Amino acid sequence: MNKIKACLFDLDGVLVDTAKYHFLAWKKLANELNIEFSEEDNEKLKGISRMASLEILLSLGNMELSNEMKLKFAEKKNNWYVEYISKLTPNDILPGVKEFLTLLKCHDIKIALGSASKNSMLILNKLNLVNYFDAIIDGNKITKAKPNPEVFLKCAEELNISPKHCVVFEDAEAGIEAAINAGMYSIGIGSPSILKKANFVVDNLSYMNLEKLSLLK
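RESULT FIELD:
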């Protein structure tokens, strides 16, 4: 077994279900711009940066905007999103998260957050999860969006652990690609048909244990 020394977690869809709030905020912006936007379209925005998401939304409406207007609309969307997530409580933590993080802590396995979200500290504080993490790398500390491996490589660097001893937990295809590009193991959270490049896939973290980590070879 290639001993796993660190577990790196995406935030949205892995630790907490904020995808619904992203959808509501993007849908509100799409309505304002008279662009048709469905939950299926929202899938394309998972795991990528705010500006990259806005580009996809605009392309759905064949719309061109100046950089100044793009920044204005991205900020507008984020303000709506922050309004929604400000109401989060520890009850919004996804199944198995606290139990698995506690298990990792007990066995001296390092824990990091690797997320494109610029609101990760707000969310982690609302969920009372901050103290579980040895490193937090988010959208405020990176310049390249997944599938670029920058976010996960920075996690490994801050933890001082080789990428080959890290495993990434992701619910998005771009995130699994980023883990592979970083030379790390990956475990998908969600649908095996979407996350087929992951080492394996589970429904949520309540299905995770140390035995499953030991399957990564």
